[in-house]
Automatic annotation (TrEMBL):
Subunit organization: Heterooligomeric complex of about 850 to 900 kDa that forms two stacked rings, 12 to 16 nm in diameter.
The keyword Nucleotide-binding belongs to this UniProt entry's keyword annotation: yes
Superkingdom of the organism of origin: Eukaryota
Single GO cellular component term: chaperonin-containing T-complex
Name this protein carries in UniProt: T-complex protein 1 subunit epsilon
A Pfam cross-reference name: Cpn60_TCP1
UniProtKB keywords: ATP-binding, Chaperone, Cytoplasm, Nucleotide-binding
Compartments, as annotated in UniProt: Cytoplasm
Summary of the function given for this chain in its UniProt record: Molecular chaperone; assists the folding of proteins upon ATP hydrolysis. Known to play a role, in vitro, in the folding of actin and tubulin.
Chaperone found in the keyword field: yes
Sequence intervals crossing the membrane: none
Primary site of residence: cytoplasm
Similarity comment text for this entry: Belongs to the TCP-1 chaperonin family.
């Protein structure tokens, strides 16, 4: 700070920019960063596993979300510390690539940082710790591949897939319906999967929800469900062997772009104008029995359509329109002139279904020419429940997709982590350098997952975490009576677990290497 005078002799203070910033260096920076990241991990720790707690988050505009999904909790948490944001990113990348294990990955990163802090206190250089962690993660991943199993399934034997999806769903709020939701997810994924090329396009699965009914009413529809109804109440509600025109142009006679004056002073002139307008619709008569339009249409058009017995649906969203085109094998037509019979989509049955006593109606397009697009239609007591079910179904769909792409599994309930921890611990002796401490610390950090699972289930962690060398031995969260996850049918995908270890290590290494932390001071008004 310096004192200076302006040309009128008035004093003013010059503040150096540096003074307005908080700046931490060296060990202080690392410790502050670790503390911030651990604070985030601590929040998620209690949500891990089948007995994990749920979090309730309120957005600034008052929307409430109740969830158990790590990625969603972090997304809505509004953190403004840069290091904490790295963990939010971490969870997001796990969600993006794998879709499941978003809580686990953050808990693991938190545990790695906790162990790193102890090593820093003992004077070990952060680069050494980072290198040790890197080596340990390689050992852990190799070990994972060794203990992984291949498991067989086919279009007729879907039970193993269902079991794995059930493990994912068992730690969610919707776990009372885990069996039926798992079956729905597996059937949906198989419907859109190309088993030979081991490829699944999840975009072909539409997840739609409507408040009402109960979770058990959730169903899989081999076709598309659109939250729209026919544009006129007197149009038919059920069309068999529908030929569908899919339009992205407004369904009304073209209007002049500039102002014109049309004088209609005789009945004849009026009739001519009407005939002109009607002719416009006659011209596009290519045999369609249903029109689906991205835009609206005016009352006149609606009336004409109704008189011609041509049911129509308006204001259908772009994504839905695309799915309808894929499912029915039709083409999206941007201009009336381009409409030809070959461009019409075909569906065995289109029906409008109403729900309860409300005016709510939805349109079901089923038995489509190309049955590869499906819809999961969720019912539930309130909007929050539907949203959470959507998130859980997303996880379960991702798990089924991952298994179809790569059918290796490891056992869940913390068993894979315990087994890797033992392997890393055993391998540590081979490294004579300081890294050995970091490798051992990595092994301890792996135990954090089973520990958290045990704590969250109200078990005594020390008693529960016995050092048996059985890769299936995990935490009996649901008190079934056995620790053997093979017997309990608790699986996780190998790629998911591997990704968790690799991503968590990467982020922790990144945080450890930061030794200068420069942030603007909070504004004081
Ligand atoms: P994530 O978002 O990381 O998937 P979850 O809250 O879904 O977190 O918890 C997943 C953890 O719970 C995994 O380690 C999984 O193995 C474990 N788990 C799930 N079901 C069971 C079960 N029935 N018994 C023991 N552990 C389970």
């Amino acid at each position: 700070m310096a004192l200076a005078f302006d040309e009128f002799g008035r004093p003013f203070l010059i503040l150096k920019e540096q003074d307005q910033k908080t700046r931490l260096r060296g060990l202080d920076a690392q410790k502050a960063n670790i503390a911030a990241a651990r604070a985030v991990a601590r929040i998620l720790r209690t949500s891990l596993g089948p007995k994990g707690m749920d979090k309730m988050l309120q957005s600034p505009d008052g929307d409430v979300t109740i969830t158990n999904d790590g990625a969603t909790i972090l997304e809505l948490m509004d953190v403004d510390n840069q290091i904490a944001k790295l963990l939010v990113e971490l969870s997001r990348s796990q969600d993006y690539e794998i879709g499941d294990g978003t809580t686990g990955v953050v808990v693991m990163a938190g545990a790695l940082l906790e162990e790193a802090e102890k090593l820093l206190e003992r004077g070990i250089h952060p680069i050494r710790i980072a290198e040790g962690y890197e080596m340990a993660s390689r050992i852990a991943v190799e070990h994972l591949e060794r203990i992984a199993h291949k498991f067989e399934f086919g279009p007729t034997n879907i039970e193993p897939l269902v079991q794995t999806c059930m493990t994912t769903l068992s730690s969610k709020i919707v776990n009372r319906c885990k069996r039926s939701l798992a079956e729905i997810s597996v059937k949906a994924v198989l419907a859109v999967a190309d088993l030979e090329r081991k490829d699944v396009n999840l975009d072909l699965i539409k997840v739609e929800g409507k408040v009402g009914g109960k979770l058990e009413d959730t169903e899989l529809i081999y076709g598309i469900v659109v939250d729209k109804d026919m544009s006129h109440p007197q149009m038919p509600k059920r069309i068999e062997d529908a030929k569908i025109a899919i339009l992205t142009c407004p369904f009304e006679p073209p209007k002049p772009k500039t102002k014109h004056k049309v004088d209609i002073d005789t009945v004849e002139k009026f009739q001519t104008l009407r005939q002109q307008e009607q002719k416009y619709f006659d011209d596009m008569d290519v045999g369609a029995t249903l029109v689906i339009c991205q835009w609206g249409f005016d009352d006149e058009a609606n009336h004409l359509l109704m008189h011609r017995n041509l049911p129509a649906v308006r204001w259908v969203g772009g994504v839905e329109l695309e799915l309808i085109a894929i499912a029915t094998g039709g083409r999206i037509v941007p201009r009336f002139q381009e409409l030809t019979p070959e461009k019409l989509g075909k569906a065995g049955l289109v029906r409008e279904k109403s729900f309860g006593t409300t005016k709510d109606r939805m349109l079901y397009i089923e038995h489509c020419a190309n049955s590869r697009a499906v819809t999961i239609f969720i019912r539930g007591g309130n909007k929050m429940m539907i949203e959470e079910t959507k998130r859980s179904i997303h996880d379960s769909l991702c798990v089924a997709r991952n298994l179809i792409c790569n059918n290796s599994i490891v056992y869940g309930g913390g068993s894979a982590e315990i087994s890797c921890s033992l392997a890393v611990e055993a391998a540590a002796d081979k490294y004579p350098g300081v890294e050995q401490y970091a490798i051992r610390a990595f092994a301890d950090a792996l135990d954090a997952i089973p520990m958290a699972l045990a704590e969250n289930s109200g078990l005594q962690p020390i008693e529960t975490l016995s050092a048996e060398n059985n890769p299936c031995c995990g935490i009996d969260c649901n008190d079934v009576g056995t620790n053997d996850m093979l017997e309990q049918n608790v699986f996780e995908t190998l790629i998911g677990k591997r990704q968790q270890i690799l991503l968590a290590t990467q982020v922790v290494k990144m945080i450890l290497k930061i030794d200068d932390f420069n942030a603007p001071a909070p504004m004081v008004i």
